[in-house]
Amino acid sequence: VQEQGDRNVTLSQNQAQMMLNWDVTSESGPSGPSVVGLVSLPGMEKLLTDAPVALETEKQAVLHETHKRFLQNVSSILLSDVISAFMGSSATPNLNRPVTFVFKHPVTAESRQKIHCVYWEHDQNGCGLWTTKGCQMVSTRDTNTTCQCTHLSSFAVLMASYSVQ
């Protein structure tokens, strides 16, 4: 809940952080009290092992161009806890400013692995998939990945591994 003072806020939960400026909340909905929240869902990798992934066309093109000579098989694993971020206003599909997320994860990506910041997109059938739309990776090093997203939803970090022919 918004308090007087610093306009920047950081929420931490388990292995994730969310950083935003309170101005995002006032730009996204009616004036009045503002509430933001972060919920961590550890252990979801067991349920989402074979969940489909949809990369944006541009990211997919870069990926295939970079690895086309030896790309045989691509598999993705959930590298971080799944987190859900929410805001008290109802208008969170498109924020005027990005929200920053920092994920801690147990391993560092190697040469044939690519880190992706993703969110869970529900479909009309009650199912869904991981997608990169509206989220970008800012940096990744060692066991931390920083993402920026222009909407609120459920987020995670995936690592795509490539088999060599």
From TrEMBL:
<dbReference type="GO" id="GO:0007155">
    <property type="term" value="P:cell adhesion"/>
</dbReference>
<keyword id="KW-0677">Repeat</keyword>
<keyword id="KW-0812">Transmembrane</keyword>
<dbReference type="GO" id="GO:0007189">
    <property type="term" value="P:adenylate cyclase-activating G protein-coupled receptor signaling pathway"/>
</dbReference>
<dbReference type="InterPro" id="IPR046338">
    <property type="entry name" value="GAIN_dom_sf"/>
</dbReference>
<keyword id="KW-0106">Calcium</keyword>
<dbReference type="InterPro" id="IPR000203">
    <property type="entry name" value="GPS"/>
</dbReference>
<keyword id="KW-0325">Glycoprotein</keyword>
<keyword id="KW-0130">Cell adhesion</keyword>
<keyword id="KW-0472">Membrane</keyword>
<protein>
    <submittedName>
        <fullName>Adhesion G protein-coupled receptor E2</fullName>
    </submittedName>
</protein>
<dbReference type="GO" id="GO:0005886">
    <property type="term" value="C:plasma membrane"/>
</dbReference>
<feature type="domain" description="GAIN-B">
    <location>
        <begin position="1"/>
        <end position="165"/>
    </location>
</feature>
<keyword id="KW-0732">Signal</keyword>
<dbReference type="InterPro" id="IPR057244">
    <property type="entry name" value="GAIN_B"/>
</dbReference>
<keyword id="KW-1015">Disulfide bond</keyword>
<dbReference type="InterPro" id="IPR003056">
    <property type="entry name" value="GPCR_2_ADGRE2_ADGRE5"/>
</dbReference>
<dbReference type="Pfam" id="PF01825">
    <property type="entry name" value="GPS"/>
</dbReference>
<keyword id="KW-1133">Transmembrane helix</keyword>
<keyword id="KW-0675">Receptor</keyword>
<dbReference type="GO" id="GO:0004930">
    <property type="term" value="F:G protein-coupled receptor activity"/>
</dbReference>
